[in-house]
Amino acid sequence: MSDTREPMSVGRLEAFSDGVFAIAITLLVLEIRLPAGEGDLLDKLAHLWPSYLAYVISFLLIGMIWMNHHRMFHHIRRVDGTLLGLNVLLLMSVSFLPFPTHVLAETLHDRHDSQTAAAFYGVVLVIGGVFYNAVWCYASIGHRLLGDTITPDEARTLRIRWGMGPVLYLVATLLGLWSAAASLVLYILLLVFYFFDLRPRRAGSAPTP
């Protein structure tokens, strides 16, 4: 008997993805805990500055991934099983981010193994970047799942621009083995860079979401 089920829509995939992004970004705050024991509350709150820093970086990182995920799916018009699987792998890496965020914050508190924690954080970002680019490459090569909102040349340009991400995060990861602070600075710079919409602009065209 033939399969008469309707294929999953792009909208449904985005809705599920949005839910995972929302949960992951909310879980970040649960890793910030007030130190136990006696002491001045203001001092305790000030002592949590590494947790605040790690929280802000990871919150904005997940937000940046979510924005670019939305920008990517503006051009994707069809979904198949392979794309679903690759998107699940991307979401898996996103939902894992609260853990390396907690590890990074804890090591920055006592300055012990901070280089290892910064590198571990970077490895998670590299893996996430690989999965993100796998989604776009699969959808865009040969214009396999794309609509007419982007040309093949524009899609190829975007593959190059987004493809720089895992490479640059790998550089930041290796830098973390030498200096956690330098690695964090590079993570922040990359975060700022990828916040911007890197999609090619056509002359005279209106901005897209």
Topology order in helix (H) and strand (E) letters: HHHHHHHH
User: Number of DSSP strands?
Assistant: 0
Helical percentage: over 70%
Major sheet size, sense and barrel closure:
none
Straight-line distance between termini = 41 Å
Globular, elongated, flat, extended or rod-shaped: what is the shape? elongated
The DSSP helix count reads 8
Radius of gyration: 19 Å
Question: What is the residue-mean pLDDT, rounded to a whole number?
Answer: 88
Instruction: Catalogue the unreliable spans.
Output: none
Portion of residues in beta strands equals under 5%
Number of domains: 1
- Which secondary-structure class do the elements indicate? mainly alpha
List keywords for this structure.
about 210 residues; about 0% strand; single chain; potassium channel; potassium transport; mainly alpha; elongated; 8 helices
Give an overview in words:
InterPro entries: TMEM175-like (IPR010617). It is found in: Membrane. Its main location: membrane. It is a multi-pass membrane protein. It comes from Longispora fulva. The chain is an all-alpha fold and 209 residues long. The protein has one domain (10-31, 42-195). The chain contains 8 helices and no strands. It has helices at residues 10-27, 41-47, 49-73, 81-96, 98-110, 114-140, 152-176, 180-195. Helix 6 (114-140) packs parallel to helix 8. The radius of gyration is 19 Å and the shape is elongated. The mean pLDDT is 88.
